[in-house]
Structure formats: structure tokens, C-alpha cells
Amino acid sequence: MNQVKRSIKIVTEQKTIDKPPVMEGYPMRKWNIQIFQLNEHGEEIPATLFSKATYVLHESFGERARQTTSSPPFRITEEGWGEFDMQIILTAVEKGGDHTIVHDLNFQSNQYEAKHVVTFKNPKPNLLAVLRETGPVPGDENGRKKGEESAKKRKRPEKGINMDKLAENLQRLHEDDLLQVVQMIHDHKSNDTYLKNDVDAGEFQVDLYTLPDNLLHMLSMFCDERLMA
After folding, report:
1. CA pair distance 58, 32, nearest whole angstrom
2. Which of 60, 155, 179, 205 is the most exposed place for a label (fewest CB within 10 A)?
3. What's the rounded Cα separation, in Å, for the pair 112 and 11?
């Protein structure tokens, strides 16, 4: 299984405000949350890997208990008196799925940070391209540059292959079928093909855009036959 990990940082700021307390003994506070990505050097960069962030707050917020913001840094601002655990659902770009994080809202400090790791499993080519813009991708050090240069020189197959659908269908195959796919790729790859076969980790990675057209058609037909059976 191909996995790419990215680190994010959640920054929370809070302060007391001059409003009548809702609960005796607990001053009212105003707080906000922002979300950033951390690059490979630990530096803040915009969290453009995600198209939106959905905050699931305490039920006492009523109609505001679920809020969505759709541009980095996905800032939310609220008022209240109590601490609680909330869910933050990060929706990745390029159909990369939802990733849920539990965040502890507390008033121990005026500002605090929490770091989390988000894992992308078997990212499709479009998402993988976005991930490469924000940090290293496992296996790239063993040939990504060659594969990328080759892909830039090649056009999409001219005979109507939907590459996104092919990538999705390959992930739907059973294990025995996937073994046949690996063998087909080894038998019919070209010098420009980028692949990585890590036997110890049980991982096989291939850039579909670096495969020759005849092999792409073979894989497409193979998937159709197996998934329709």
C-alpha cells in the first residue's frame, strides 16, 4: 500500500471578553482556530491540500455546532465559556477523502499549537501531484525526476483511456488479480516507466502516465474483464 504522510498544525488563540457570563464562575471567552500545513523543514505553509475544513463543536452551540470554511487557513471564530473536544474534518483536494482530527479546545494558554499527521492511502495521480508540491513522496528519490520528465514528454493516450478510472479500477482488483497486473507491468514496461517494487514493505508503486500506450490498454481491458465477472 502506498502511503504519503503530511503534517499539519492547528493554532488556537483565546482571550476573556467583557460579556455577562452564561455560567457562573466561568468568564466568557472569544477563541479562534487556524490550520496550517508544515513542510519537510517544519515551516508553516498554506494547507492547500484541503478544499475545506468542517468543525463539529459542542452541541450547546446549536445551529453553529457544525461549521464549514473553504479557504486556508480555515479560520473559525467563536465565543463561549467551556472547554471541550471537537472534531475537525479536513476534506482533501482531488477526491482525497475526509480526514478527521480530534482537537482539544482549552483555556490553559492564550495561544497554543497542536500537530497532527494526516495519511493519504494510495493517492491517485492528480492528488499525488499536489502532494509532491508540498513535500517528498516515498519512492521519488528512486526515480521520480526521470518519471516526471518522461510524463511531461508524453501525451495522454490517444485511444480514449480514462486514467482516473483506470487508477480507481486497479485499486478495486482482488489480490490475485493485482499480482497479474504487477507481472504485466514488468513484462511490458518501457525504459521510461517509473516504478518501485519494495518487496520487504509489500509495496508496488507505478506512475501510470509513464506506461506505454499498449500496456495501458492491456491493463484497462484486464480491469474491465475482472470487475465485470
Report:
1. 15
2. 155
3. 6
- In b/e form, how buried is each residue of 147-156, taking b as 16+ CB within 10 angstroms? bbebbeeeee
Contact criterion met (CB below 8 Å) for 90 and 73: no
The tens digit of pLDDT for each residue in 174-186 reads 888 888 998 888 8
Query: Which cell goes with 77?
Result: 471564530
Instruction: Name the one residue in this structure whose C-alpha cell is 513522496.
Output: 137
- The reply to whether the predicted model has a pTM over 0.70 is no
Residues 99-151 have pLDDT tens digits of 999 999 999 999 999 999 999 988 888 898 889 888 888 876 544 444 455 44
From residue 178, alpha-carbon distances to 5, 121, 192, 211 in Å are 24, 17, 22, 16
Residue the block writes with cell 473536544: 85
